[in-house]
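Catalogue entry: protein
Contents: sequence, fold tokens
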Amino acid sequence: MANFKTFLKSGHAPTLFSAFLYFDFCFAIWVLNGAMAPFISEQFHLSPAEKGFMISVPIFAGALFRFPLGLLGQYIGRKSAAVISMLLVLIGLLYGYFMVDTFSEVLNMGVLLGIAGASFGIALSLGSGWFPPKNKGLAMGIAGAGNSGTVLTMLFAPPLAAHFGWQAVYGMAAIFMLLPIIVMVVFAKEPPDREKQTLKEHLACLFQKDGWTFNLLYIITFGGFIGLANFLPTYFYDQFHVSKVEAGQLTMIAALVGSAMRIVGGWASDRWGGINTLSAVFGVIIITMIIAGFSIGVAATTVLFAVCFAALGAGNGAVFQLVPLRWPLATAVASSMIGEIGALGGSFIPNAMGISKQNTDSYTLGFFSFAALAAVVFIVLRISQRKWTKTWVDNGGRVRALENNK
């Protein structure tokens, strides 16, 4: 406890809390269509492929919005960018409550709600901006643990939809969205680590090899997390014929473990190195995805996904322990760029699962394809780390001694 108090005093705790709450509520909104998918697909009689596409739209839109929002945060401040993004999300929720009557309008709403998914880079950079390099991994892990918003959505949204109707859930979410907006305005303080740079300097990480390596890593860790979190309610409902509420509850168990492990991943990376942590994480992801391709019963599947989400969550924390070490002066932009490309991996899973189910009447090929992609990225990591440990990070991905003393 004393060490944690020391950690909090090394930065600005109210800003870290505001960033966590901002990301938590936005993440809850980002996965809302996934939680409502069994209800929406039943009303509009969607095919498996249409279900997968509907679930992927907010993920894809969120990925596209991330870099522009991160760039905006560099110019007007991350606090201001966070407030603007939440107001836009509020508009999307009101659109969903008042105006959605067709499947096409569901897709339009998905694009608007994708803005919530763009919050990632801003939240992590805002939350960690006041902390020294040796504590950034934990600070980013705490801010990034806002993906626990998945738990809130999967726990509360399906029962509310069953009682009041799925559209009413979007109206309720609009009301709750006012809380993080108020907290951000009142308590957050813009960090001092923002430098005035040209647009070319901001975009430089887009053209660096390391940036694309991080993109691939994040396609697996975060893309896997968001893709599975959105698709699992549909998977449990269709595969095991549980109720819509039970499907959300089973998904919640896995999401809760993954969210908590993000903090552990950041802490473990500070201690043992992000590269070492990611290497272990990828082994677990590959094995669990292969096993998931076989029918093993609802209880065993729930445990399996909890293990998988634990690895995905820890991997997210590990990736963003390394990002501020690689791009110390452009963390927000680099985080948003990596988040943007990486989050596209989340749209891969729902579409792969939907196509697999529609063409083979099984989800097996969808799971196997993601396991194969993870194996390829693991090889890329092991090759890239040889150069990293010679240039900007110590062996295993630890902070270099000189930076650690700052």
